[in-house]
Design a protein that fits this description.
This protein is α+β, with helices and mostly antiparallel strands. It has ten helices and four strands. Helix 6 packs across helix 7. The N terminus is likely disordered.
Length: 249
């Protein structure tokens, strides 16, 4: 082996070893090669605000994934194949290798633990708790009360006008609480100058409130300012419903 060839061989060995070390320290360093993140799949529906939260978080963290559309209108969530992933028959569901996680709140906490780059929870304990509180309010006290299945049942029982009024009343009740909760912490975004988990939950919820339920956001100036900032983010726009593969235009 010539001196030049020996040098090249050692250089290639060193390069390979360095790449392996980087991938060990940071799993996402391998994303271009697909060794880690290529195995992530997200079962999503374009209009689902819960799915939107996860799409937004994945985009912020720079984690590529395979989009697997589940047509809720056609009942694809009730197929035997999907039931194996989530017996509750709801999206989103994240599959990361052998790990299957359903429920957007659980998915985001999993992503934060497994892929800590671009943290969605601040280090400060008070602001971390605030972000989790906002996420909980949206995911447990607002969004479930305007789920399609709930609204369909209401329409059958009491009529379409009551359906809309029920959704609007509960959204506004939640938004009023969020206004009061965030007023002393808000910056450009919900809890300061960085986008965190509170924003990831708020942005799709506010979008749904405006577009689907005709909420007058002038009643909620703090949330309106937050949404204006978030609506300018490329990561938010790229993950919006109309930009998804299964979107109906």
């Amino acid at each position: 082996m010539t001196h030049r060839r020996a040098f090249y061989f050692k250089f290639q060995q060193h390069r390979t070893q360095l790449k392996l070390e980087l991938e060990t320290r940071n799993p996402m360093a391998a994303k271009d090669g697909g060794d880690v993140s290529s195995k992530i799949a997200l079962y999503s529906y374009w209009q689902s605000s819960c799915s939107w939260r996860v799409r937004f978080a994945l985009k912020l963290k720079g984690i590529p994934y395979e989009y697997k559309a589940v047509n809720l209108g056609k009942g694809e969530q009730f197929t035997p194949e999907f039931e194996k992933l989530n017996p509750l028959h709801k999206v989103p569901v994240l599959v990361d290798g052998d790990v299957v996680v359903s429920d957007s709140y659980a998915i985001l906490l999993y992503l934060e633990e497994k892929y800590p780059q671009r943290a969605l929870l601040p280090a400060d304990p008070q602001r971390k708790a605030l972000n989790l509180q906002v996420a909980s309010i949206v995911s447990s006290s607002i969004q479930p009360l305007h789920m399609l299945s709930i609204l369909k049942l209401l329409e059958e029982k009491v009529g379409p006008q009551e359906r809309l009024l029920f959704a609007q009343t509960n959204i506004e009740k939640g938004f009023l609480a969020l206004e009061k909760l965030l007023k002393d912490f808000v910056g450009k975004y919900a809890t300061g100058e960085e986008v965190y988990m509170a924003d990831v939950f708020l942005a799709p919820q506010i979008a749904a409130a405006i577009e689907r339920f005709k909420i007058d956001m002038s009643k909620f100036p703090t949330l309106s300012r937050i949404y204006e900032s978030l609506n300018a983010l490329p990561e938010f726009l790229a993950t919006s419903p109309e930009n998804q593969p299964d979107a109906l235009h």
